[in-house]
Design a protein that fits this description.
about 150 residues, alpha+beta, five-stranded antiparallel β-sheet
Length: about 150
């Protein structure tokens, strides 16, 4: 009998829960974790980074959330003279970089597949801002859940 009482009390709790607040907290948490992973990757790259010159060989277009984004495909050689042709994680407008243009590449000495363009390292502050905003969103959702 106690099992049924517990099940019904859980069902009452779930019905009374403000699911909008829970969804807001989950979205904030997902943004928080994504930015935290990005920040960790940036810090690791800064510790082990090596600069070299690369070249934009083409652009790769990806459909994300119904919009096309252009990602430059970069060719560069690492410190062991091994050549890599990789797609940049950060999308760029086709107007910013041109095919055949020389760019400065910052890559991880232990894993050259982890790289950024040097001009994109100016965006190092973005994950910190996203962490702060997503924490505020989670706090707002928690207050809404608590007070609402």
């Amino acid at each position: 009998m106690k099992v049924f009482d517990r099940l019904f009390s859980l069902a009452d709790w779930a019905n009374s829960l403000n699911w909008t607040a829970v969804l807001i907290m989950l979205m904030g948490g997902l943004a928080f974790l994504t930015a935290l992973i990005r920040l960790r990757k940036q810090r690791r790259l800064k510790r082990n980074c090596v600069e070299t010159t690369g070249m934009v060989v083409r652009f790769s277009s990806r459909l994300i959330n119904g919009r096309f984004s252009m990602h430059p495909v970069i060719t560069f050689k690492d410190h062991q003279n091994k050549e890599f042709t990789l797609v940049s994680e950060i999308s760029t407008g086709a107007s910013r970089l041109k095919r055949g243009e020389s760019v400065v590449v910052v890559y991880d000495r232990s894993d050259p597949k982890v790289f950024v363009l040097k001009e994109d390292t100016l965006l190092d502050w973005v994950p910190v801002v996203i962490i702060i905003i997503s924490f505020a969103i989670m706090l707002f959702g928690g207050l809404w859940l608590r007070l609402g």
